[in-house]
Amino acid sequence: MLVAVGGLAGSVGCTPAASRPSAAPLASDHSIGVDAVPVPLNSSDPSASAIGDFVYAGGLALTSGQTDQLHGLSDLEVTGTDTLTAVGDMGVFFDARLVFDGAGRLAGLAETRLTPLTDESGKVLADKEDADAEGIALLPNGDRLVSFERRHRVWLYPADGGPPRLVPSPNIPLPSNGGLEALAADPEAGSDAYVVGVEDTGETWNCRLSALCAMGLPVAKAEEFGLVSMKRLPGMRTVHLLRAFDVVRGSRISLQMFRSNVLIARLDLAAPLTVDNFEGVAAVPRPDGGVRFYLLSDDNDDASQRTLLLAFDWQAR
Fold first, then answer.
1. CATH number for the domain harbouring residue 178
2. What is the extent of the structural domain holding 82?
3. How far apart are CA 26 and CA 72, in angstroms?
């Protein structure tokens, strides 16, 4: 989560007075209606369709008139080709099926559902200090890992339901709003392996359900950028999502993919391109050897920002 961030594409800040009233936690899971409005890659040039090797595959601005909980979405996973699971600051899972047009571009969402996160006793997380979920990772057996900041920890939510349990995470002091933002399953290292990344420092930790975490290689980044999401892909590839903001330039995003610490792809977003407080990335390998990336923005429950879901296709040259 970043409190002072850019809003609509091309804007340079937000006003605290625009924040909506705090929403009460969900009592149970339920289906919701979601309005998904298409957005261009560049509102100043609607014909723009690519950035380097990344082809824009559609984007949506998401809102709902049926709930005040569709805000603060911080990270996501996409399994198969169309099953989306996100997690958010308000202590929710957001599940949906992606809808595509005839060209395979992102066109909408269906079967949208919100589910409250529960604590280890099965009670809904009602305290903001407990509920600030920032990262999500799906283990091969379907279990969901969720990382939290403020009260820094990683919980495992079983695939078959039931309350979560605490699993290993870095045992280090962390700032309230700059902690365990990035989380990724690491199946090439083992079925119970995962990686945790620290926003402020870019430090990473290699973890297992059955062992304590060990420090990994830090993510190289400029000081003004924070590590907000990461994913592992087959072939020793790692995806990092970095975010920066200042009142002059607004939000800036850098999506970087490495193979064995060698940069092989990079996508940078800044105004006038469609950009917001992107905090989540999902990476879906494609049969042709390329990757479809999905970027999700956290609107901080602020009326000057948007919940955006953008898709990009990358193909190795």
1. 2.120.10.30
2. 53-314
3. 14
> Does residue 64 lie within any of the structural domains?
yes
In a domain, 37, yes or no: no
Nearest to 133 by CA among 185, 79, 85, 93: 93
Q: What are the helix and strand counts (H, E) for the chain?
A: 1, 23
Total number of residues shown for the chain: 317
pTM to 2 decimal places: 0.91
Number of domains in the chain: 1
- pLDDT tens-digit profile, the chain (317 residues): 554 333 333 332 333 334 444 455 565 678 999 999 999 999 999 999 999 999 999 999 999 999 999 999 999 999 999 999 999 999 999 999 999 999 999 999 999 999 999 999 999 998 888 999 999 999 999 999 999 999 999 999 999 999 999 999 999 989 888 889 999 999 999 999 999 999 999 999 999 999 999 999 999 999 999 999 999 999 999 999 999 999 899 999 999 999 998 999 999 999 999 999 999 999 999 999 999 999 999 999 999 999 999 999 999 87
